Amino acid sequence: MNSTNTSASFSLGDWNVKRLGYGAMQLAGPGVFGPPKNHSAAVAVLREAVELGVNHIDTADFYGPHITNRIIRDALWPYRDDLVVVTKVGARRGPEGSWMPAFAREELTQAVHDNLRHLGRETIEVVNLRCMFNVHHPADGSIEAPLTVLAELQQKGLVRHIGLSNVTPTQVEEGQRICQIACVQNHYNLVNRADDSLIDKLAQQNVAFVPFFPLGGFTPLQSSTLSDVAKRLEATPMQVALAWLLQRSPNILLIPGTSSLKHLRENQAAGDLQLTANDLGELDSIA
Ligand SMILES: NC(=O)c1ccc[n+]([C@@H]2O[C@H](COP(=O)([O-])OP(=O)(O)OC[C@H]3O[C@@H](n4cnc5c(N)ncnc54)[C@H](OP(=O)(O)O)[C@@H]3O)[C@@H](O)[C@H]2O)c1
What we know:
Blueprint: E1 9-12, E2 15-18, E3 22-23, H1 39-51, E4 56-58, H2 67-76, E5 84-89, E6 91-93, E7 99-101, H3 105-119, E8 124-130, H4 144-155, E9 159-165, H5 169-178, E10 181-185, H6 196-204, E11 208-209, H7 224-233, H8 237-248, H9 261-269, H10 277-284
Parallel strand pairs: 3-4, 4-5, 5-8, 8-9, 9-10, 10-11
Antiparallel strand pairs: 1-2, 6-7
Bound molecules: NADP nicotinamide-adenine-dinucleotide phosphate (NAP).
NADP nicotinamide-adenine-dinucleotide phosphate binds at residues 23-26, 58, 88, 130, 165-166, 185, 212-217, 220, 236, 238, 255-260, 263, 266-267.
């Protein structure tokens, strides 16, 4: 692998976190519903992530529900001082695993308390308001009421920082008028580049952008160009996809998800992959 470490850190609230973090969603059962087949294997992935230097883990109490947070607690409590766990509120699961909005004051308050209890923390470092005007993509709608509830919970000391997820640029602006926004977490990767200008704007403001589905999520990225570049660099396509994100903008923090130790190690090694201008040109053509 052509190796130069491009993976520095970036600010997330009060902390400087490594740009290569870890997303815990894959640790729940199939469809992010119910427990994993192998609890010990899930614990091992989290412990290895932290040993490899990860200090930013993304989760939600609606993964499972309640499953992923409990696994994080089993694996990592007592937590290292430098570990930032970011969660989300605003959604809940139906009895058959569907994803539903949970934006009422009582639901948001309950969700913050559930996260605190299941993670075993007194304060959550960052809580993202996960917007559900459309479950799959950002859609218009005011976030004033739910964000005001989160800001009140922040004033009570239960939440240290607030972020937004699945939001439009207009909702980011609305949010920034209500409280400080530490990060924005939206669907973005080599193929899905709808947020290009939002990322650049947040970079100017020194606000972290955290792409979810960095590897394509439930539909892994597939492209002959990506495979060709990876082959040339003696890397895997997924490593190249992560390296592209790291080079796309300094405010991008990565949270690739995996339930596999092998994939975890490969993903963390992507921080050592340097893409040339020529590689970037080819990869940019995929979108
Ligand atoms: N805010 C939101 O609405 C939202 C939505 C979705 C996700 N998220 C967060 O974003 C994180 C990342 O998203 P994600 O996990 O859904 O998708 P992802 O990171 O794009 O991709 C995960 C998928 O890629 C596979 N994979 C991971 N590393 C690989 C590798 N090196 N080689 C081959 N396959 C690999 C995983 O399977 P294996 O388990 O077999 O490795 C899994 O199927 C989540 O964990 C979650 O914390 C947030």
